[in-house]
User: Fold MscS Mechanosensitive ion channel from Candidatus Promineifilum breve.
Amino acid sequence: MHPHPHTGRRRGWPLLVTLLLLIWSSPVAASAVYQVEPTATPAATPPAQEGAPVIVNGQELFRLKTRVGSITATERAALVSDHISQLANNPFSGEIIVTVRDVEGATDIMVGEKVLVSVSDADAAAEGRARQELAQEWAAIIQTAIAAGQAGVSAPALGARLGIALLVLLGLLSLLWLINRFGDWLVDKLDPTTESGRLPPTLSHSEFYQSGQFSRLVRGLLRFGKIALSIFLITVAIPVILRSFPRTRPLGQSLIQLILNPLARLWNLITAALPEVAFLLVLAAVTWLITRLVNLLFREVSRGVVRLPSFEPDWAIFTGKMVNIFLIVVAVIVGFTSLPLSNLPVFQGIGAFLALLFTLASSSAIANIIAGIILTYTGAFRLGDYVQIQNSIGEVVGKYLLTTRVRTFKNEVVSFPNALVLGTSVTNFSRMAAEKGVVLHTTITIGYDVAWQRIHELLIAAALDTAHIEKTPPPFVLQTALNDFHVSYELNVHTRQPQYLPLIYSDLHRNIQDHFAAAGVEIMSPAYAALRDGNAITIPQVTSEAETADH
Assistant:
């Protein structure tokens, strides 16, 4: 079931109402968050400056460097910032005039009867100026800051900011709606159960697509993509909206910092790692180029175009793979050691643990790898050879570092560990066939009543009528045993087609039966046994001592 087209629209209304309430209530929100948009870019303050800054609307006005009684300079600066911000960010405060009044031992900067800050002789001494002069300067700065703040919270300014926020919110909801609609449309297109599903035939007719797994995979990826993109858009839009209003501007700036700080750290990490990344890219490119050249060289060696002294062409592909593996391992080691992370104790510990695990768990694997290398370079067999390993006879269809695979005449693929193959005898029928031919043999037993010359003639004639049997060297017969009632005759033939062994044996046995039947010779071993009619028993008769005495 797919979501209704209006589902995304209904889901967007709660978010819209919540954000509108937040925006509408922001001008009269509690004064815990009170800064407004600065009218001028604050001047950069050197970190080495002393004192606590008085900050209003994100702009530093001046610094307090002395304490008053038990109140520290930092606490004084926070109180003064709070007093000034309340006046600057109140749209209903009317016209505000900042005045200066001298009192005993201090000069007060006031608005009406409210003291914003008292300039003491200690403040003047810390600044190296006269107290009244310093108070007049601070009062002018405060007057300018309050005027700028009131301009920011005026009705026209709030209206403009509200319009911008509404536009941003409308754009956000539109993008979320488009993302949801596009995701639903794409899922319908990729769903084989819907009429709108249309894909290229190569994909639509595949089992993976027809089973619905493809649709489920795409639906899951799209759902994740929609959620991730929606979170990103909301995360970007909310700070933009919050920064449009005086009361929520600090919160918006904090959210922006939450977004930008990780990105800045990531950027710094990327830029700091650029030399190492460049080295890794060059190393990867050089390694790839060398492996391609190695593949080209050994491919030509395997084809016989390039000849290496004392090097068999059959070794080329395997040797090329081994060289490439060695090059890749060396490149990985060099690349990892060039990274700063390789010097961290945690990575060194992980490396030691993996080395120990590899040492303990890979003894059999290493034995098979070494056996595979030995089998390759000793030339025991090649791909396509017909061999016998233990009780399995068939074609070698795979030679790997760990295993050797043989496809039997029953089309069964048997995998042998290379260590097992190296430790057992291997009969290579293909190599024997290429040299003098494979000798096949079969044995029959015939009684002494048939002349052995006749038996030889019939067996050789049957062999010559069999397909894939070589005429040269000719078939021959060996009398392997003179038994009690019959003679064992072994027929030996040569063939150069070991891939047809089952067929050759079957045809040979059929021809032997046909020739012996035509000659009137029974293929049957005579046996002799004593027969009885069943009345006599073989148990000896037992007699008593009295009967023995009478006799």
